[in-house]
From TrEMBL:
<dbReference type="GO" id="GO:0006355">
    <property type="term" value="P:regulation of DNA-templated transcription"/>
</dbReference>
<dbReference type="InterPro" id="IPR005202">
    <property type="entry name" value="TF_GRAS"/>
</dbReference>
<keyword id="KW-0804">Transcription</keyword>
<dbReference type="GO" id="GO:0003700">
    <property type="term" value="F:DNA-binding transcription factor activity"/>
</dbReference>
<feature type="region of interest" description="Disordered">
    <location>
        <begin position="159"/>
        <end position="205"/>
    </location>
</feature>
<feature type="compositionally biased region" description="Low complexity">
    <location>
        <begin position="172"/>
        <end position="194"/>
    </location>
</feature>
<dbReference type="Pfam" id="PF03514">
    <property type="entry name" value="GRAS"/>
</dbReference>
<keyword id="KW-0805">Transcription regulation</keyword>
<dbReference type="GO" id="GO:0043565">
    <property type="term" value="F:sequence-specific DNA binding"/>
</dbReference>
<protein>
    <submittedName>
        <fullName>(wild Malaysian banana) hypothetical protein</fullName>
    </submittedName>
</protein>
<comment type="similarity">
    <text>Belongs to the GRAS family.</text>
</comment>
<feature type="region of interest" description="Leucine repeat II (LRII)">
    <location>
        <begin position="360"/>
        <end position="392"/>
    </location>
</feature>
<feature type="region of interest" description="SAW">
    <location>
        <begin position="497"/>
        <end position="575"/>
    </location>
</feature>
<feature type="short sequence motif" description="VHIID">
    <location>
        <begin position="309"/>
        <end position="313"/>
    </location>
</feature>
<dbReference type="GO" id="GO:0005634">
    <property type="term" value="C:nucleus"/>
</dbReference>
<feature type="region of interest" description="Disordered">
    <location>
        <begin position="89"/>
        <end position="121"/>
    </location>
</feature>
Length: 575
């Protein structure tokens, strides 16, 4: 008859036979004696484990998910959270589990069932256990703990050290869906700063803490931190001071207009001043400039045997990309006939110059082509993404090599997170339907699309901080640097602080672009050794500072252009 007690399953049977109710008196006596010895041993060993307060009164008062604002003066660095899931630490106190005697002592099997011999063995075992405890206590007397000082030092250091900044290029990740930014691919992870780098400066850590507090609605902490941060900001200081000024502007913009859909104006991004500042940024920043160089080199490589070339350009700007491109075409034995169709999307907030200005840009490009000896036609069309087709663009299939030029364009086109119509994927599908010979793509390597506000600010600190440092190195003394950085600041504030349709620049990391391009039906095209070597030669000849780097993805599928090992822009080609 079942007893209802899980004696065998729990190992409670006296001799491994029968159930709990059939144990003999001798078995029960032996069981009680063993329990008494083990409890005595465990009690003596656990008394040797110290509390955290013996080492640091501040850490001793911390609990799981404690805030950095609890004791900033005593800790000496900001702490956003305590990870209670670290191996070897309990969830309640963060202490390592006590050492148990049952983990180190093996009970001998009884050789006889006689009560006398069993009692003698148990007494001998008890004596040995007590002697072991005394010896261990004497050995640990200098430290007062069964755990070494080195182990505790490492544990305390992990607790009081702030977490590393969230850098999009520091993690390799792949997502089959282009809508999940948290799992996007960063193919240039090897180019990113390693996790062993020092913790961020206190001012940057306070920025991240302030962004978190703002997300939690803790406005008192936000205002207190901003008062401190403003003392570290200087638009005319070094790059770190200028970064502080930009990020404080983003925090203030977010603080003053926290609701999605608020009427915060974006007219400053449509102004002629911002348009000119963007062109200056492209001219002064080697990372942006080399993105255009890589795109032009890929176009030249793809059309080297063609007599007619048609370039559909979705952001012609001031036409600076065509200066070197037309000169390179003119050096061919039989220069091809070139046609450029500049597409202006009337729905884009970045279409901030009128058709007359774009025609003036076209006239400049045509004059340059005429001087170089290249036949060129220039045309401007005003079309939305859903209106693009071969007829509206004047394409001549089979008669010309069609090129789609998209450097730093797609990040300005809304996607599914903004509109159910998904203009970004619509544009790519329309371009794919044109069957172009090549699609030239370049984008910034940062996720300001679907990441939450604190994560966007964390990534922006690393990305824009490196951009400002690179501009300091490349354009020191240039009168246009102030203009370029002002435009960069406006873009950063909008990308970090705004939500919904008000965030008009939504950058993603290269892995996300790769997933999106693949889903639209494109295949990556290796840039080839000629393109890679040309870009590296341009870096060596124009960038005297060794901080500028060129990183090639395996197979030459993309080039990462960056500063001090951090990739800032990525160029690629597609078909």
């Amino acid at each position: 008859m079942a007893s209802g007690f899980p004696g065998r399953e729990l190992g409670l049977g006296g001799n491994g036979e029968g159930n709990l109710l059939k144990r003999t008196l001798l078995d029960m006596e032996r069981q009680q004696m063993q329990h008494a010895i083990l409890l005595r041993s465990v009690r003596q060993r656990t008394q040797a484990v110290p509390s955290v307060s013996m080492f640091d009164p501040v850490v001793g008062g911390l609990s799981c998910n404690s805030s950095a604002a609890a004791a900033p003066e005593r800790m000496g660095s900001s702490l956003s959270s305590v990870d209670c899931s670290e191996p070897g630490f309990t969830a309640r106190t963060g202490l390592p589990p006590p050492v148990s005697a049952t983990a180190t002592v093996n009970l001998p099997a009884p050789e006889s069932r006689s009560s006398g011999s069993m009692r003698d063995q148990l007494r001998e075992l008890e004596r040995r256990l007590l002697l072991d405890d005394e010896e261990e206590a004497e050995a640990s007397a200098p430290s007062g703990s069964a755990v070494t000082h080195a182990e505790w030092g490492e544990a305390i250091q992990r607790l009081i050290s702030p977490p590393p900044p969230l850098l999009p290029t520091a993690v390799s990740r792949l997502s089959p869906s282009p809508t999940d930014s948290s799992s996007s691919t960063v193919s240039f992870a090897s180019c990113s700063p390693p996790s062993s780098l020092p913790s961020p400066p206190p001012s940057r850590q306070m920025l991240l803490d302030t962004a978190t507090a703002l997300g939690e609605g803790n406005l008192e902490a936000v205002r207190a931190n901003l008062a401190v941060l403003k003392r570290a900001a200087d638009p005319r200081g070094d790059p770190e001071h200028r970064l502080m000024a930009v990020m404080i502007a983003a925090l203030l913009s977010r603080l003053n207009h926290p609701q999605v859909g608020s009427s915060h104006p974006i007219t400053d991004l449509r102004s002629p001043e911002h348009f000119m500042a963007t062109q200056m940024l492209y001219d002064l920043s080697p990372c942006f400039k080399l993105g255009f160089v890589a795109a032009s080199s890929a176009i030249l490589e793809a059309t080297k045997e063609e007599s007619k070339i048609h370039i559909v350009d979705f952001e012609v700007g001031q036409g600076g990309q065509y200066d070197a491109l037309l000169l390179a075409l003119a050096k061919r034995r039989c220069p091809p006939a070139v046609r450029i169709t500049a597409v202006a999307d009337p729905s884009s907030p970045f279409t901030n110059i009128n058709i007359g200005d774009m025609r003036a840009v076209g006239d400049r490009i045509k004059n340059l082509a005429e001087r170089a000896g290249v036949r060129l036609r220039f045309r401007v069309v005003s079309l939305r993404a859903a209106e693009l087709d071969a007829a509206s663009l004047g394409c001549e299939p089979g008669e010309e090599a069609l090129i789609a030029n998209l450097p730093f364009v797609l990040s300005r086109v809304p996607d599914e997170s903004v509109s159910p119509d998904n203009p970004r994927d619509e544009l790519l599908r329309r371009v794919r339907a044109l069957r172009p010979r090549l699609v030239a793509l370049a984008e910034q390597e940062i996720n300001t699309n679907t990441a939450a506000f604190p994560a966007r600010l964390a990534e922006a600190c690393g990305h824009y901080g490196a951009l400002l440092e690179s501009l300091e190195a490349a354009a020191r003394g240039s009168p246009d640097r102030g203009w370029a950085e002002a435009g960069l600041a406006r873009r950063a504030v909008n990308a970090v602080a705004r939500e919904g349709a008000e965030r008009v620049e939504r950058c993603e990391v290269f892995g996300k672009w790769r997933a999106r391009m693949s889903m639209a039906g494109f295949q990556p095209v290796p840039l080839g050794p000629a393109v890679v070597e040309l870009v590296k030669a341009r870096v060596a000849s124009t960038c005297s500072d060794p901080g500028f780097t060129v990183k090639e993805e395996a197979g030459g599928l993309a080039l990462g252009l960056g500063w001090m090992g951090r990739v800032l822009t990525v160029a690629s080609a597609w078909r």
